[in-house]
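Hi V.,

You were right to ask for the full record rather than a summary. Here it is.
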Amino acid sequence: MNAGRLTTPPPVSLVYAGVSNGWAQWIAWVLGQADCPVTHVRWSPLSPLPDLADLEDFFGRPGRVLLVLDDWYLRFDTGRNQQWAQVLRQVMPRLHDRVGAVTVTTRALPDEAVSLGAVTLRGIGPEEARRRVLAEVGLRPSTPYNRQDEGPRYPEDPPDVTNSPRRNPRFTGREVLLNEVHDTLNAGYGRRVLLHGPPGVGKSQAAGEYARRFASEYDLIWWVPSATKAAAREGFAALAREVGLSEGDQLTGQIEAVQDALRKDEKGRWLVIFDGAEDIDGIAPLLPEGRGQILLTAQNTAWSRHGARPRELPPFDRDESIAFACRRAPRMTEAQAGELAAALGDLPLVIDQSAAWIDAHPATDIPRYLTSIRADEPAAPDPDTPDPETPVAAPPAHRQVWAHTLGSLAARSPAVHELLLLLTFFSPDMLPVPLLRAARPSDLPTHLAASVSEPGTWDAALLTISELASMRVEFATEARQDTTSIVSLRMHRSFRRFIRASLTPETEREYASAAARVLVASDPGEPGAPRNWHRYAEILPHLEPSGALDSDDGDVRQLLLNCLDYLRVRGEYQDGWDLARRVLDRWRGTFAPTDSRVLAAAHQEARMLRGLGRYEEAEKADRGILGLLGEAGIDSGLELLRAKDGLGATLMARGRYDEARALYEEAAQNATDWLGDRYVPQTLQFRTNLALALGLQGHYQESCTLHREVYDRRVGLLGGRARRTLQSGYYTARMLRLLGRLPEARSLQDYNVRQLRRTLDAAHRQTLLAEHNLALCLRRDAEFERARAIMRESRKRLIVLSGADHPDVLMVNLDYAMLLRVLGERTKARGLAESTARAYAARLGTLHPYAIGARNNLALLMLDDGETEAAAHLADESMRQLEAAIGRGHVWSLGCAMNSAAALAALGDVEGAERLGRDALGRAIPAMGADHVLSANLRAGLALDLRALGRAEEASALERVALMTLSASHGPDHDQTRYMRSRARPYWDFEPQPI
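Predicted structure:
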């Protein structure tokens, strides 16, 4: 981009305050594109006044001076800024032809600044802004404006993705620190910075100002409220939806998808801010890697262990305190502001609240107010025992300020005072404004209920509170009503503690009950529905501060159960288990152990433990529920069936398939006897679980028959497109494939996938698992590339849905690795197989059938790589381990025997291979049937070993039977039939089933 000119462009000294950094960087870039040498001169509004001679020397430099005027210039009529104004009035007239000015504020400038002849850059677009900047230095553009991602972004264009807080127009000072943070984040060694300091020092405000001031340098800025681990996970995962990554039902998958995108720098230059991140162990796993930048705010300095370079944010310097207080309360003199700052220890939070009170009470005698806050006695009691979050109690002067604020609010506006008290019964980091708006008047305290009938009343009350209590607010526009309203509010914890400590027990009970009613009224009641997840995420942080955990109210208890179910559905098993334990500790001391809600919470506890992979504890919890029911003499009914169902799921997850089958057979029969035709859907679910257990035992024919029966019943009862019906169709197709009935399996699965995509969505877990089974059908039909495409996409989406270590993902990983093996991509296949085997061992235990089977698959890949001895050892070891775990007659044990025989033959022990193959065939025929594909492959493998031993006649007979069997089931020209006819060594892939 070149600028039209008649002479060489002059050097330019660009003078600006730090608050205008974004504009200054863009202006410098524009001038640089026109070949103007630019010198940056950062001006601090709080810096000492230079001598007149020094100022004239500066403006007398060669070239031009360009001033960037912002909101600080609006203060040229007050305090020390008047001295600046006087200097400029004396200097500017003599240098008007060498000094230009641009204004980046939307407000009218005072006369002292107007005399500079500034042209505005706001609200005109980058093309016209560029023209005006160049005109101020005597140049004009010669080409159209075209940034092309090379320079800083035009300051009025926000980053492509951002949720950073609104600008705080009263932000003051911190110039040196913000520049240090910027330099550190942009240095090669420091892409993580921690802003730390005591409560009330303004850490969040400084982080927000950093994001605004340097926004033009980023394509993505994401603000993560991090007061709790749960809030941080929700806030970080929300970025997945914002940037168009697939949305899943579990947060872990969304978090990993975002981390992967940021690690690969797919979203350009990025900055992620974790605000209030005190829980290091809970939040550290969220920090993304990559070339982007991370800014944290916390009191905890231990973040340095995670690579964050600490930058302490102290209280204000006195000059900063004075400037801030005077901006907040313009009628204060600088001397009075200095007294206020001294009394309050220069703490920004309390200076803001105190100055706000003064500003809101224009008749107040300021000297008398200053005397009152220096009183020794606290205005309200603090707790006898300090809050563990803040071991040091608030100083008396701070409490005096807060007492003034509360007292005047109660006297002047009882409804607003009631709202402030009510807000203290919610999480201070994310006050639930939308939930309060939706509350029924009958759920609110008396004065508040009478005053909030009009929507605008809420905003007026909230704005009053935010102004007096220094609470940050955010606005959003309602699309349906085209109105802008407050959507979030944040209260400082120390202020909240002061208010709560001043309440009587009776008042505390009253407001806790009101807060719990607000949460109950906002409960959508369907925690499994994705449309409701954002609402439960809003509710969760408020359960404890509202007192909901201690409530005996039935509706509140149901809300807690719904929140537990939400956490389970979202895969937040650790938080779910923590909440379940707290709920159960409280309820078991109040209600009967067999109370329906106590049992529901106990079931959730066991399910959370299963989700965490703590199967031994889950089994103990499941058996505990059954024991309680037995002790209470409950020997029938839905509660007992649920308890058996839960224990069966745990036993299946632990690989104890025989026990699970026995329990499910009992439960299925009990359901038929006890429930009859009244609860057919529940009865069918118990029969489905029995069919799953049969399949895990390797009884594929029995499992298929039962799944087909349930499928047909559900079609008639629920319809062909109901979710449960489609689930049964998928289970049936999977069993048909495992039985070797490929044409039937593929036809049903293809139809099932189409229905699932139409009914549930292409990214639904059930759809993806069905697509995985379809890919396996295609693989068996030698449509390898189509199988690869489907399985690769299903795997990718499942990882986003659930996280990389979820059992569904591990299942698909193992099958995908073996598909890559067939495609000749052995290096990728082996790497994926090895990592999956390790993950199974870590999640389920080294002797779980799935971990063992994964190692047997790995033995095949080692055999491909010529590691014959190691492969033979691993194949033999995994075969023996699997036989010990599930029996020698299980189809998986027989498949492992086939692979072990292949490894022995490759090692040269053909006789050993022949003995093992013959023994496996003898076990397979009664277990699977003589016509099953596994039996046919065992015959083919045995024939190869017999031929190698010189027993050709016996080998030919076995081979002939094997080929006839496979031709009958698959067809004479099927790829598997041709493979067998080629006398290549048969092998078996271990394929896990969903658990």
